[in-house]
Automatic annotation (TrEMBL):
This is Glycosyltransferase family 4 protein. Residues 172-313 form the Glycosyl transferase family domain. Residues 18-131 form the Glycosyltransferase subfamily 4-like N-terminal domain. PANTHER family: BLL5217 PROTEIN, GLYCOSYLTRANSFERASE. The keyword Zinc-finger does not apply. The keyword Glycosyltransferase applies. CDD domains: GT4_AviGT4-like. SUPFAM superfamilies: UDP-Glycosyltransferase/glycogen phosphorylase. The chain crosses the membrane at residues 351-373. Keywords: Glycosyltransferase, Membrane, Transferase, Transmembrane, Transmembrane helix. Pfam families: Glyco_transf_4, Glycos_transf_1. InterPro entries: Glyco_trans_1, Glyco_trans_4-like_N.
Length: 383
């Protein structure tokens, strides 16, 4: 199958540091290539992939100090994809509703994975209008604000099976917070939980510019407490040691989290997750098996005291059973095939091989084989 993966340009694919959506796009793209599919990745030029990379912008926008209008490079990318749409069986976007208008005016089937929060009132008229745009949710919970959307599937995120592994040489000694410092992620609550447990907490997190004032005014004063260690933003290579060294990952969210990639990163390292029962958390965490689902700080403290009942080997097994990139890629292939079937489309490669087979059978010579293959490629490009 010939697949176009269309990534945001804010971060490289995969990101150098933080970047949930771009990281998932990377994991999916590489898994699709491993499964034998012909994938073209539209992304920033500093991306690294086994797929065919179409570099729409030289580097990730977050790392380009000259960029002031981040919409312009994305508009350029969408038009480039549209102009080449007939080269692909499927256009798979990760830019939320941005492609809906343009891609609805071309014939190649497209779908969009919605990675963000959907409980915003301004989204209602968008999804009321674009009723034919097929979308994928990353949790069932994410769907609830937009029941009118044209949902194709729910597909949970996945990680490469060996990317993050438990570190048996590291003994757990603290509670961990990993991700982004913002009001909805509630790092202040994580700090409070750790204090009530009498345990140190290590915080590995980025601060977006939009959240800098929140950090300066409300969070920075908390960082001076003796049980708190703020590490800052960490790379992918540092995560296994950081998470393996934690008794548990604290995930005290105060918003309808669409998925929460950090939860399965912890599980990959065998680290239990203690998450507030909001958004996707009840779908990701198996209560009492891969961690605990709690309603408030006191329940979180009680859960920390019950961590001895959770096997870290079992936590890792839950990750392997539910959240690998191979499983994610196979789920997307099912969704692609469903979309093609709905629109009565034939995969371009299958069309090409069928034409080649017919012409070869009729001609029966080496020259005819070469001629047939050439014709089939031309047809595939123009179908």
């Amino acid at each position: 199958m010939r697949i176009a993966q269309i990534a945001p340009l804010h971060e490289a694919v995969p990101p150098k540091l933080y970047g949930g959506t771009e990281r998932v796009v990377s994991y999916l793209t590489e898994a699709l290539v491993e499964l034998g599919h012909d994938v073209t990745l539209f992304a920033s030029g500093d991306s690294i992939t086994a797929a065919q990379l179409e570099a729409v912008w030289p580097q990730a926008l977050r790392l380009d100090p000259k960029i002031r209008d981040t919409l312009a490079p994305h508009m350029l990318m969408l038009e480039q994809v549209r102009q080449r749409a007939d080269e692909f069986d499927i256009l798979h976007g990760h830019l939320d509703y941005s492609p809906f208008s343009l891609f609805s005016r071309q014939s190649t089937p497209f779908l969009t994975t919605l990675h963000g929060r959907l409980d915003l009132p301004e989204l209602q008229p968008v999804f009321n209008l674009f009723t034919q745009a097929q979308v994928v949710s990353i949790s069932d919970s994410q769907r609830s604000p937009l029941p009118q959307a044209n949902w194709l599937a729910t597909i949970y995120h996945g990680l490469p099976e060996k990317r993050l592994m438990p570190r048996s040489d590291i003994q757990p000694g603290y509670l961990a917070f990993l991700g982004r410092i913002s009001p909805e992620k509630r790092v202040d609550t994580a700090i409070s939980i750790a204090a009530k447990c009498g345990l140190p907490i290590k915080i590995a997190a980025k601060i977006d510019r939009v959240d800098q004032a929140y950090y300066d005014e409300q969070i920075k004063p908390l960082m001076s407490q003796p049980h708190v260690e703020y590490i800052g933003e960490i790379s992918e290579a540092e995560k296994a040691a950081f998470l393996s060294g934690a008794h548990a990952l604290l995930f005290p969210i105060d918003w309808p989290e669409p998925f929460g990639l950090v939860m399965i990163e912890a599980m990959a390292c065998g680290t239990p997750v203690i998450a507030f029962k909001r958004g996707s958390a009840p779908e990701v965490v198996d209560h009492g098996v891969s961690g605990f689902l709690v309603s408030d700080e006191m329940e979180a403290v009680a859960a920390v005291n019950r961590l001895h009942t959770v096997s870290r080997d079992t936590v890792r097994q839950q990750f392997e059973a539910r959240f690998t990139a191979q499983r994610m890629a196979k789920d997307y292939i099912v969704a692609y095939e469903r979309l093609l079937h709905q629109q009565r489309r034939t995969v371009l490669r299958e069309v090409a091989l069928a034409i080649a087979s017919i012409l070869i059978s009729a001609a029966g010579s080496v020259a005819a084989v070469k001629y047939a293959l050439g014709k089939s490629q031309i047809y595939a490009r123009s179908s």
